[in-house]
Amino acid sequence: MNTINRGRQVWLHLPMFALAAACVLPFLLLVVSSVSDESSILRQGYTFFPDQLGLDAYRYLWNHSDQLVRAYGVTVFITIFGTAASLLMTAMLAYPMSRQGVPWRGGIAFFVFFTLLFNGGLTPTYLIYVQYFDIKNTILALIVPGLLMNGFNVLLMRTFFMTTIPPALIEAAQIDGAGEFKIFWRIILPLSMPIVATVGLIQTIIYWNDWFNGMIYVTDSKLFSVQNILNRMLTDIQFLSESKFSAQLGDAGANLPSTTVKMAIAVVGVLPIIAMYPFFQKYLIKGIAIGAVKG
Q1: What pLDDT digit, counting tens, does each position of 42-78 carry?
Q2: Burial (0-12, 13-18, 19+ Cβ within 10 Å), 253
Q3: C-alpha distance across the termini of the chain, in Å
Q4: Any signal peptide, and if so, which residues (predicted)?
Q5: pTM here?
Q6: How many of the other CB atoms lie within 10 Å of CB of 150?
Q7: What is the DSSP string of 236-263?
């Protein structure tokens, strides 16, 4: 009987192993391609076992390390500050929406949901932020537009509050003399760590991977984020390798590792998020499972 159960467990785990391999193998191919020689990729294509290895792509990035270090500093700052501000605003909006006695609760929920369906478009948004809020070439341009508040996160957190926090607990705190802010800071947030970690991880990934705001609102190179710097490096190397200037550069232009640089850029951009994910995994799974329940 134990042998049958063990065999059944093996067969049930095989699809999960296959799914895990389908997620891991592309990233492994990305890393191997980034340390492959450019000529090997052009000759063999992308493979797990290249004929020749090389670090030309990472040498190219190392030659621009001063820009990358500054860009990493900008990205780390906007990710930490933006995520913290976004969590605070999201929680402070979602919590009143989860309370039954709050006036205009339904109207606020409709307004939040409306933002998920419609927006004003790029041109009006750009004019509002540049002409009226004057955030062009400021650090706020990488934090505020389209990132600071997300209607989906608000509704996700509101559902968590409604389905997880017992109303009797809030009533008991009120009877003991606690005000709304004390209840929110001392009771609600500590009990909501799963959804806070979930939304925080989502916002962290969004801020870390954002390149659009930098492309639209920032022209000062000192404010470029990692994604903007890597995108510009990729554009520059493609321009040098494909344009008429490649002939003027001679062998240096012809041998630019444009293919492997793409892979190295992807590795450099994604590694910090991968390193951080294991610390938030259990909160992410629990927060999404509970917060996604219809409420």
Answers
A1: 777 778 888 778 787 888 778 877 878 888 889 989 9
A2: middle
A3: 43
A4: none
A5: 0.76
A6: 20
A7: HHHHHHHSTHHHHHTHHHHT--HHHHHH
